[in-house]
Design goal:
The complex is a heterotrimer of chains A (about 230), B (about 210) and C (about 230).
Chain A: H1 2-20, E1 23-24, E2 33-34, H2 46-73, H3 76-108, H4 116-136, H5 141-169, H6 194-226
Parallel strand pairs in A: 1-2
Chain B: E1 7-16, E2 19-29, E3 34-39, H1 45-53, E4 60-65, H2 72-78, E5 80-83, H3 95-105, H4 112-121, H5 137-149, E6 155-159, H6 167-180, E7 185-189, E8 201-205
Parallel strand pairs in B: 3-7, 3-8, 5-6, 6-7
Antiparallel strand pairs in B: 1-2, 1-4
Chain C: H1 6-27, H2 29-49, H3 56-74, H4 77-84, H5 88-94, H6 97-126, H7 135-161, H8 166-193, H9 202-227
The chains are: A mainly alpha (about 230), B alpha/beta (about 210), C mainly alpha (about 230).
């Protein structure tokens, strides 16, 4: 109950702030956001695109964590948790890809460019797709749980190869790629003002709580369904 | 004769697709003893044999197999010879090639003399160079016995030992079982209760 | 691998490898699929290129696309055949999972290397404009790429062998895992075609080697869960 209320309030505030706060070149009041040259109004998408991308990764790691637990303890509930997390992660991944494509259209001219970060989220989408294809191709419950856990571990290991190493080899559009003078770390120092940072991190927390809440709901529902 | 336990099974339970096939199965088997596992179709006899052979993991419980061996994984597999309807030979290979790979994949040198002796014993020597693909079902069953005995295992696990065999084949298998129980242990899973009094122990699985 | 005499384990690995090789030479399932696939695809590429010379980036990509799909048509055989013919249990009775894995990994490595050599030769002789100016870099790339393919796809072949719709599932599961390898290897091939010196592609080679090591190790650790029921 408490989680739901907190979540509702936080999300509403983030939405209002992210969409409603006006931009001004020299922010004076706490409700004004800075104008980032080149981005301006489009910057608002940061509050929504980055959390969904972040969450699609977190969800995958959660799925893998419960997959590993299933392999060790062989309790069916861990497989339920693993696939519930993956289902949510898939949804967030689709959202991240779409919001990213929209941003790309407005900032860089076209919906898709095969920039390394774009390719990474696409690969994550492929991994989720592969994970669910595998699950639907196995009838035996225990085998399905075992094999999807194994695959998620394999896939998880290749993701760092992709995200951390490839942007260094090929140049790209996202901040942090080879051609960007601001540095090549995976978490880039955004040119954000303090109040913008507050909204950003609140959004991150709000979306994470959203994930936790939805995850708990899905697990409960799946548990009831499998006990019939 | 020492009462050294060859197979010890405790509290074996198997669940398939959230359904319990059997639970609480325990038994022990010493050298020179024979065990019969009987039960209706679908009661889990083959599943139990696979668990004892180590190719299937039980949901709960344990099986331990002891005998003269170097221990470790090769040890467990070296102690068992299994014949089962689920066991398949490599049909693109001949009988002799199957036995050759059976030895070498076990990490042992191929003993051709012994292989030929076994092939003669199961009446397949004449066809030893023909691919198993060309064998009749009775011949395929007999080659499985050569496969099971090649590495001199102390324990024989036989799931439906007489399947597909004619009278001659049955006589061969009876003779193999008789000879084996002199020094080793034999576990048989079957519905065929013709020789039921021959067995020292018996377990019945409910469906 | 508790208590297993190393020599016996090695003999077992080599025997699994030899059995697969012997079986393949006798039935030729994978090899014929691979050869037909590569020939047909390269023919299509040649028809579509006509007299034009495609730039090195495009040709490098195409080379590895052909290799990828060639691998998809042949590298799953080693596990799928055991499953379809019912001999998985036979193998389980004979050898520990680690010996089965490394034996089949070795087989897949040989198969993919043969595929690579065949494809590369056809490309060099038949496809317009595919000229390699740094042959050493190219050979290393193809070799490491082959190792990478084998290390990633063998374990996936083991996974799909236990599933129902094996054919289409293999590329679906393999592609995300292979993608880092593919991008790296296409990049290195392009550099080799343009004549880049060895130290310039050193970073990519380090990447390839770490990919191979990580995937082989992980596959070995996970294999027992896939293989044993």
């Amino acid at each position: 109950m408490g989680l739901r209320i907190t979540l509702g309030i936080l999300l509403t505030l983030v939405l209002l702030a992210g969409v409603g706060f006006p931009l001004s070149p020299h922010p004076q009041h706490w409700y004004e956001l800075p104008v980032i040259p080149g981005l301006e109004e489009k910057a608002r998408l940061i509050f929504f695109h980055v959390p969904t991308a972040w969450l699609s990764v977190i969800a995958f790691l959660t799925s893998m964590y419960f997959g590993i637990r299933y392999l060790r303890k062989r309790e069916h509930i861990d497989d339920i948790r693993s696939s519930s997390a993956a289902g949510l992660g898939f949804m967030f991944c689709v959202l991240a890809t779409l919001t990213g494509a929209i941003w790309a259209k407005f900032n860089w001219g076209s919906f898709w460019n095969w920039d390394p970060r774009e390719t990474s989220i696409f690969v994550l989408l492929l991994i989720y797709g592969a994970y669910f294809s595998l699950r639907s191709a196995i009838e035996n419950t225990e085998k399905r749980a075992t094999l999807s856990s194994v695959y998620s571990i394999l896939a998880a290991v290749t993701v760092p190869f992709f995200i951390f190493i490839l942007p260094r080899i090929t140049s790209g559009l996202h901040p942090g790629a080879k051609g960007d003078p601001d540095g090549a770390g995976p978490v880039v120092e955004f040119k954000m003002s303090p109040n913008m940072r507050v909204i950003f991190f609140s959004s991150l927390i709000a979306f994470t709580l959203l994930f936790v809440w939805m995850f708990q709901l899905r697990v409960r529902a799946a548990k009831l369904e499998s006990e019939q | 004769m020492t009462a050294q336990i060859a197979i010890k099974a405790e509290g074996l339970k198997k669940v398939f697709n959230r359904r319990v096939v059997f639970e609480g199965v325990s038994f022990s088997l010493a050298p020179t003893q024979t065990l019969l596992i009987s039960g209706r179709n679908g009661s889990g006899k083959s599943t139990l044999v696979k668990i004892v052979a180590g190719v299937l993991s039980p949901t709960a419980g344990s099986v331990s197999i002891s005998g003269p061996s170097e221990g470790g994984y090769f040890g467990h597999q070296a102690l068992i010879g299994m014949v089962s309807p689920y066991l398949q030979m490599y049909e693109e290979f001949s009988a002799e090639e199957n036995l050759l790979y059976a030895s070498t994949i076990r990490g042992e040198a191929y003993d051709q003399t012994r292989a030929h002796e076994l092939l003669r014993r199961v009446a397949l020597y004449a066809r030893k160079d023909d691919p198993v693909r060309t064998y009749s079902s009775g011949m395929k069953q007999r080659i499985k016995y050569a496969f099971a005995l090649l590495h001199r295992p102390p324990i024989l696990l036989l799931d439906e030992p007489m399947a597909n065999l004619d009278a001659d084949g049955i006589a061969i298998v009876r003779e193999i079982m008789q000879e084996h129980r002199r020094n080793g242990a034999v576990l048989v899973a079957t519905n065929d209760l013709t020789d039921v009094d021959v067995y020292d122990k018996r377990i019945t699985l409910d469906a | 691998m508790r208590n297993v005499a190393p020599r016996r384990w090695l003999l077992s690995v080599m025997a699994v490898f030899r059995k697969d090789l012997h079986s393949e030479l006798r039935t030729r399932y994978a090899v014929s699929a691979l050869v037909m696939f590569v020939i047909t695809t390269i023919a299509i590429i040649m028809f579509s290129l006509g007299q034009e010379n495609a730039p090195p980036e495009v040709l490098s990509g195409m080379l590895w696309v052909v290799i990828f799909f060639g691998a998809m048509s042949g590298l799953s055989r080693t596990f799928v055949m055991e499953e379809e013919r019912g001999t998985s249990m036979t193998l389980q009775l004979l050898a520990p999972p680690s010996a089965v894995y490394f034996g089949k990994l070795l087989f897949n490595f040989v198969l993919v290397t043969a595929l690579n050599i065949f494809t590369v030769l056809l490309f060099l002789f038949l496809v317009n404009g595919f000229v390699v100016q740094a042959p050493l870099v190219f050979i290393l790339t193809v070799f490491l790429g082959g190792c990478g393919f084998a290390s990633a796809t063998t374990v996936i072949a083991a996974i799909i062998a236990r599933a129902n719709t094996k054919g289409t599932l293999y590329p679906v599961l393999s592609f995300p895992i292979l993608l880092p390898l593919l991008v790296a290897v296409i990049d290195a091939t392009k550099s080799a075609a343009e004549g880049a010196p060895l130290d310039q592609v050193g970073g990519v080679f380090q990447f390839l080697i770490s990919y191979i090591v990580v995937l082989t190790t992980l596959s070995y650790l996970l294999f027992e869960y896939i293989w044993k029921d």
